[in-house]
Amino acid sequence: MQETQTKPSYGLLIILMTGAFVALLSNTLLNIALPSIMKDFDVSAATVQWLSTGYMLVNGIMVPTTAFLIKKYTARRLFLIAIALFSIGTLIGGFAPVFPVLLTARMIQASGAAIMMPLLMNVMFTTFPPEKRGTAMGMFGLVMIFAPAIGPTLSGWIIQHYEWPTLFFFIAPISILVFILAFFKLHDTKEKVTATLDFLSLVFSTLGFGGILYGFSSAGNNGWDDSFVIISLAIGVISLICFIYRQFKLSEPMLDLRVYKYPMFALSSLISFTLNMAMFSAMLLMPIYLQNIRGISPLDSGLLMLPGAIVMGIMSPITGRLFDKFGAKILAIVGLTITVVTTYFFSQLTATTEYSHLVLLYTVRMFGISMVMMPVMTNGLNQLPAKFTPHGTAMNSTLQQVSGAVGGSLLVTIMSNRSVTHGKELLDVAISKLSAPPTNEVLAQMKQQIMAQATIEGINDAFLVSAGVAIIAVILAFFIKRTSSIEKVEKVPAKEPKKNEPVGQI
């Protein structure tokens, strides 16, 4: 495979990353607006949650097909289609008259966003030489982590001053501008290839990843014993097994799972999976603690996370340069250790924990996470031969969705179950201190007073489990070895290019 020798065009990469930025921003931008949407459309919390769950579902279903799409089509065509879909969905969302239209708009947004992330990562790896990929991925990390992190703060400010459709109208002009710039500025040098999409693989992938994501996403609200959750997970697991089996049988698989023959890529996937699970603890549990227990406003809840987002934004390019110099191992061990320690301190929350203490703790935690994500992912992808890069990037994006759903639902379930257990224990202790059995009215008042403390204890238990998950990632980090695709890329004469060479040169 011939490596790209041309100098990377940073201007064009900025266009691509701006598109990815608005796509990722939209993922978290709507979360704080959900109560307002519930009120406007008169829908339940379980229904409105589909604006987030549905977005994640479409991402999880679409991403496995991106390896085929990247191989089949040029980066220019794919990116224009992706940003067009995202822009159309954004405009429809802003004008949505009823909830089903808004949900459809989110699904259209997600179909575009799902293509953009693996495409951008593939462009990074086919444009930058191996010795500069850490810096490039640091820039990518700036987008990947900073955009979702500032979403709650920006959304809280907008909702406090304007109606929720403003969230869509804020994003739409940016995405349309990116489309226009990409249309005139983005060019490809990709050779035409022939590739076909296996229909059965598409069906198994959709049912597999979709079923697992739906099952885990629903478990947090409906419980693990819910029949739909069990059926969804069963269909997902069986379909995923069929999907994996079929990929190994096909000469041109839709998602080539042979990427896991490369040990550092397999290890990076495992570390990223566990870290994503741990990272979701603060993203999900902190808003519950701040708004439901402490009564802090959505804007102030978002502002609490802003310093952490800024730190991650500053650190991403720095971490990329450190990766180029020192490799992923030392960065991962230090960053994960910081993550474990700060997550443990989050398991010690009380009803009077100071706001400034929470800001500091969250910021330090995000500093630790910023040292891990991109270096570990880049180190894993560096070991892959160039022809596997589209499959590796698609697999990483898929695992992010799956680990987010698994981690989120697991931690919410732990919080809910442990809150009930702590509530019963605290109530029994309170009743035992009374001189006489309480009346129904007194009992109701006691339960109400105890509920907040029980929820805090449940949140603490979930953070403790999250710290345990992060410890697993620390142990795995000690097995990281520095990789270089310079030694791994298959050498093919330039005049005889392979038909399945990756795309994305710009």
From TrEMBL:
Residue ranges occupied by any Major facilitator superfamily (MFS) profile domain in the UniProt entry: 12-485
CDD domains xrefs: MFS_LmrB_MDR_like
GO molecular function terms noted in the UniProt entry: transmembrane transporter activity
Pfam annotation, one family: MFS_1
Sorted UniProt keywords: Cell membrane, Membrane, Transmembrane, Transmembrane helix, Transport
InterPro entries membership: EmrB-like (IPR004638), MFS (IPR011701), MFS_dom (IPR020846), MFS_trans_sf (IPR036259)
Gene3D superfamilies named among the record's database cross-references: MFS general substrate transporter like domains (1.20.1250.20), Multidrug resistance protein D (1.20.1720.10)
Subcellular localization: Cell membrane
Secreted is among the record's keywords: no
Membrane topology (UniProt): Multi-pass membrane protein
Transmembrane segments: 12-34, 54-71, 78-102, 108-128, 140-159, 165-184, 196-216, 228-245, 265-290, 302-323, 330-347, 359-377, 462-480
One GO cellular component term noted in the UniProt record for this chain: plasma membrane
NCBIfam families with a match to the protein in the record: efflux_EmrB
Family: Belongs to the major facilitator superfamily. EmrB family.
Protein name: MFS transporter
